[in-house]
Amino acid sequence: MSTAKSNSSRSSTATTLFVDPYDPLYPSSDGKPMADSTLQFQWIVTIKEGLQSLFEDRADVFVAGDLLWYAVQGDPRDSMAPDVLVVFGRPKGHRRSYRQWVEENVVPQVVFEIDSPSNTAAEMAGKLRRYDKRGVEEYYYYDPETGALKAWLRGPAGLRAIKKTNGWTSPRLGVTFEVPRRKDALILLRPDGLPFRTFGELARDEAAARRIAEAERQRRLQAERKTRLAERIAEAETRRAEVETRRAEAETRRADEERSLREEAVDRAERLAARLRELGESLD
Length: 284
Known about the structure:
Elements: H1 38-54, E1 61-65, E2 69-70, E3 79-80, E4 84-88, E5 98-99, E6 110-114, H2 121-134, E7 138-143, E8 148-155, E9 158-161, E10 176-178, E11 187-189, H3 199-283
Parallel strand pairs: 2-5, 6-7
Antiparallel strand pairs: 1-4, 2-3, 4-6, 7-8, 8-9, 10-11
């Protein structure tokens, strides 16, 4: 069985979205709520969005939550709405329902069901039989109230239960399941080892990222202010040094002028004394 990585090559161009040709014979709602509890809804969204993110760069992987799946054309009563379904080999896009004959008869390979208070054992056994009959490759059933995870993998004789789900890695998804057996404690690890995050965790991460970004912005502003202050101080020091240089040059010129004046005065005095000596000698 091929893994998620061995399917169609990852898209490097803009994704061409699937256009769903609407047919009113196959309604987009079965009249039932998406979830019977906030806990069930949280896990549906966490798994759906985690898988959506995991295959974000795959144009040929379609992920949906609580979408009606019609398997047989002409029989709208034969429908199921998995809490999460994953289809390899079909393009991304918005759909009112998943009509298998419109989708080149590609069967969703992976489905998830999250237990709700209204589920019965007979109902879930019926779903298992129907998913088996439809050709689903992997089926996961999680009960967040107990922390139990059940899983089935298709073999030659159909879907067969996986005995040990803790540490199990989905062949199709590449996702590893850790089952601590505590209420609401399932961990889904991406192939890179990072866990799926709830919206609450993502929101907290986003808030923390905003605080970090704001602190970094303030740090940059403070650094810029310090840089501008240092530049102003450097400019003032440069101007002061220029003033000191001009003052020193003026002092040097004044000293040179005074020395020149003294030398001229000495020279005049010597010439005058010599002249007086000449006059005195002439009188004698």
